Amino acid sequence: MMKTDAAVLWRVDEPLEVAEVELATVGANEVRVRIEASGVCHSDWNAVTGASATPLPAVLGHEGSGVVEAVGDAVTSVAPGDTVVLSWLPACGTCRACQQGRPSLCERATQQMAEGSLPGGGFRLSHNGARLHHYSFLSTFARHAIVNERSCIRLPPGTDTDVAALIGCAVTTGIGAVINRAKINPGCSVAVFGAGGVGLSVIMGARVAGLASLLELAFSVTRPGGMIVAIGVPPDGSAVTLPAPQLVRSEKIITGTLYGSARPAIDMPMILRLHAQGRLPLEKLVGRRYRLAEVNEAFADMRSGTFARAVLRPWADRTGTGG
Ligand SMILES: [Zn+2]
Ligand SMILES: [Zn+2]
């Protein structure tokens, strides 16, 4: 048992509170990671507002990188001192979806994520002895996290941990949507909705035109035979209406992608290699860096679209490297 600091969401629609929490010792297949950086994602915000039902209280954050501090007896793929990017979808490897090569649809991971536990059902976070839930198997809004070994993807020494954190969710989701799900070929036209000023203007125009949702707009502007890939997670209970005759006559394909349909252990190092080759300017996505205590400010800036990505540096107030 050790103590660390973490940003806790106690109740829906309340600010997060940075509190001292207890972290249990690592289980056999688990790893304790010192969190170096954590991106702030709209999915975390969906937990704050209740748009996505989340077991509370919980330590949020699911887009992180860090350094391994301790490993359980059965861990073989990482060792203390390794730099890792964390996958929020540690697929079991044995269920039907995993066997079909679609780890982002892992049946076990999907079920246990909804319970707010680690894979296998364990809980390692508490506050004054009372259970705190894990968020998306990671809980990276903290100085330390205990995660399953399968969430850890080892990175080359010297990897930029801010960039690595973003590969933990946003980058892999976006790039995976293109290369894994849409499988876009050279020469294809791509429209991206919700990517800043232009995207927001499209949304406003869509509202004026009376389209109920972005998906409906995307469907209406996609060429016959084209594909619409939904990436952002809409609120629980929301629905979409499509013109049924056009679905047949235009042969448009509408699909979702979770986590960019990625195989994290393969795709994340590949994305880092592309970054190292100068082909993906991922560092431009890192907007402002925040101390852990500034997590609510980071959320506010994320929601206003001030920066491409807000990045928490949980150790910044101790090392003086934060923004
Ligand atoms: Zn995310
Ligand atoms: Zn599985």
Count of DSSP H/I helices? 11
Instruction: Tell me the strand percentage band.
Output: 15-25%
**Overall pLDDT:** 89
Series of H and E elements: EEEHEEEHHEEEEHHHHEHEHEHEH
Distance between the termini: 31 Å
Helix content: 25-40%
Radius of gyration: 20 Å
Low-confidence stretches: 196-211, 319-323
Global structural class: alpha+beta
The largest β sheet comes out as:
7 strands, mixed
Shape category:
globular
Number of E-state strands = 14
Bound molecules: zinc ion
Any overview of this molecule?
This protein is α+β, with helices and mostly antiparallel strands and 323 residues long. Helices cover 29% and strands 23% of the residues. The chain is built from eleven helices and 14 strands. It has helices at residues 42-49, 96-99, 107-113, 161-167, 170-182, 197-209, 214-221, 244-249, 264-276, 295-304, 316-319, and strands at 2-9, 17-23, 30-39, 58-59, 64-71, 83-86, 125-127, 130-134, 144-148, 152-155, 227-230, 253-256, 286-290, 309-312. The strands form three sheets. Strands 3, 5, 6, 9, 10, 13 and 14 form a seven-stranded mixed sheet that branches. Strand 1 and strand 2 (17-23) form a beta hairpin. Helix 5 (170-182) packs across helix 9 (264-276). The chain is globular and about 60 Å long. The model is unreliable at 196-211 and 319-323 (pLDDT under 50). The chain binds zinc ion (ZN) (2 copies). One zinc ion binds next to loops.
